[in-house]
Amino acid sequence: MPIPEHYQPKHWFQTPEPCCRPGYTGYLPEYGPKRLYQFGETYGQMTHNLMKSHPVAGLRMGNIVDFNKELQEKLEEEALVWKHEVTSENNRFRAKMVPGYTGFVPRRGFLFGKVYDEECKQAVALIEKQKLIKENASQ
Predict the structure, then answer these.
(1) Are residues 81 and 104 both part of a single domain?
(2) 90 lies in which domain range?
(3) For residues 67 and 128, what is the distance between their CA atoms, to the nearest angstrom?
């Protein structure tokens, strides 16, 4: 069964929708004793697999799945910084930058009004976004 367009994940690091956030204690269709002790999937992936076969339930529970825009941007930024840490050979730019680093941080020159650590995270996230855009354009 093809996944409808509005259920496609918005970003590469997100669990596809519809899904429930961890900690949701309400009703889920087809979630009973057989699925209670299911291993090998995260809660989000398991609820996505349950709800994608029930499009009505998935649409009805959409308000449980929605993230506000600020949280979405923060999650994306954290994931991009983490990706940079894991894949980059340059270990100077990490999630927790040391205050007082006097070297050059690319893309930080135009970021103002935040703590040094937050500015560096945002700059590294911008670098990774540009890399992703460049990779997607070349494909």
Answers:
(1) yes
(2) 69-138
(3) 22
